[in-house]
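Students often ask why inverse folding is considered easier than folding. One informal answer: many sequences map to the same fold, so there is more than one right answer. In these notes we will look at a single instance of the problem. The structure comes first.
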């Protein structure tokens, strides 16, 4: 049998978190799920708190920073916003929901969720400003787009096809429309 790495444990933890919530993030339960002894767990992590920290850090990286790097490969701000919206609204929100639930009871998870919320909103606002939206409206629109994403995640309604296309088009209009005269 191949030895498990810390990354294997973290990936298993994230899958378990998405499926069953943070109460499932225990060495015994994960070892059973992986079909091995928990000794491997303690080879990689000093304790459960260290494991939890690594799971949270991995989530922060994969749920935001890695996505931003991917989105930045698109040509311009409007194309980046389109790619971001398609990715956000087409994916399963289970991990997002479970992480936010964990944040209710865990200070480190709460800090991570707060950091990610700020980073995501700031990134969306930056895309909107790069597309010509003034800073004030860009911040407001970024918040509205982000709230729409969180609402979709909570609804657990994964979109595809025409529904995804229509939603993305409407949200792009919200984000990129020219300012109205006062």
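Output (designed amino acids):
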């Amino acid at each position: 049998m191949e030895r498990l790495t810390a990354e294997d444990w973290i990936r298993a933890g994230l899958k378990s978190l998405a499926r069953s919530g943070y109460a499932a993030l225990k060495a015994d339960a994960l070892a059973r799920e992986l079909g091995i002894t928990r000794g491997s767990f303690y080879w990689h992590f000093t304790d459960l708190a260290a494991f939890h920290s690594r799971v949270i850090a991995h989530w922060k990286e994969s749920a935001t920073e890695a996505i931003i790097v991917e989105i930045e490969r698109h040509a311009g701000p409007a194309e980046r916003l389109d790619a971001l919206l398609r990715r956000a609204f087409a994916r399963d929100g289970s991990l997002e929901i479970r992480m936010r639930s964990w944040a209710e009871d865990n200070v480190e998870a709460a800090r991570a969720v707060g950091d990610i919320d700020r980073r995501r909103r700031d990134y969306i606002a930056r895309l909107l400003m790069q597309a010509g939206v003034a800073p004030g409206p860009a911040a407001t629109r970024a918040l509205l787009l982000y709230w729409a994403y969180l609402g979709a995640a909570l609804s657990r309604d994964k979109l595809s096809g025409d529904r995804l296309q229509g939603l993305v088009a409407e949200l792009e209009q919200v984000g990129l429309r020219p300012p109205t005269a006062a």
